[in-house]
Design goal:
By secondary structure, this protein is an all-alpha fold. The protein has one domain. Helices cover about 75% and strands about 0% of the residues. The protein is globular.
Length: about 130
C-alpha cells in the first residue's frame, strides 16, 4: 500500500472518530450523525485535497487558536450550498455547547487533520 493510501485511510478513520467525539459532546445534534455517515462514503481524496487547499493555509490560525476567524468565515463549509446556515450552526455549537476543554479537543483534531493533509500532499510530490 502506498503512502498516499495510508494517509487517505487514516484521514477517513480519523474523520469518523472526530465526528464520533463531536456526537459524544453534542448528542442531540442530528446533523452530526448525518455527517458521520457521509464521512464513511465520501471520496476521501476530495476531502484531503480540500484540507490541503483550504485548511492547511490556516494552520497559523489553528495553532494560535483563533476561533474568531472560523466563526465569521465559511471556510469549513464553502463547498456546501447552504454554507451560511452551516457557519451559523457551527458558530452556535462553538459558542453555546463547547466548553474550553471541548474546544481544545477540536483544535487538536484540526491540527491532526492538517498534519495528515500535509503528509498526503508530500506523498503526491507536491
Amino acid at each position: 500500500m502506498t503512502d498516499r493510501f495510508v494517509y487517505l485511510s487514516a484521514l477517513r478513520r480519523d474523520l469518523v472518530a472526530f465526528i464520533d467525539e463531536l456526537i459524544q459532546m453534542l448528542p442531540n445534534d442530528k446533523q452530526l450523525i448525518i455527517m458521520r455517515e457521509f464521512a464513511k462514503i465520501v471520496i476521501i481524496a476530495d476531502v484531503a485535497d480540500y484540507i490541503v487547499q483550504n485548511i492547511v493555509p490556516l494552520e497559523p490560525k489553528v495553532v494560535a487558536r483563533d476561533d474568531k476567524y472560523f466563526l465569521t468565515n465559511a471556510i469549513m463549509f464553502e463547498k456546501l450550498q447552504d454554507r451560511e446556515s452551516q457557519v451559523n450552526h457551527f458558530k452556535t455549537l462553538w459558542e453555546t455547547n463547547a466548553d474550553d476543554e471541548n474546544k481544545e479537543v477540536i483544535w487538536q483534531w484540526l491540527e491532526h487533520f492538517i498534519q495528515i493533509a500535509k503528509k498526503y500532499r508530500a506523498s503526491l510530490g507536491q
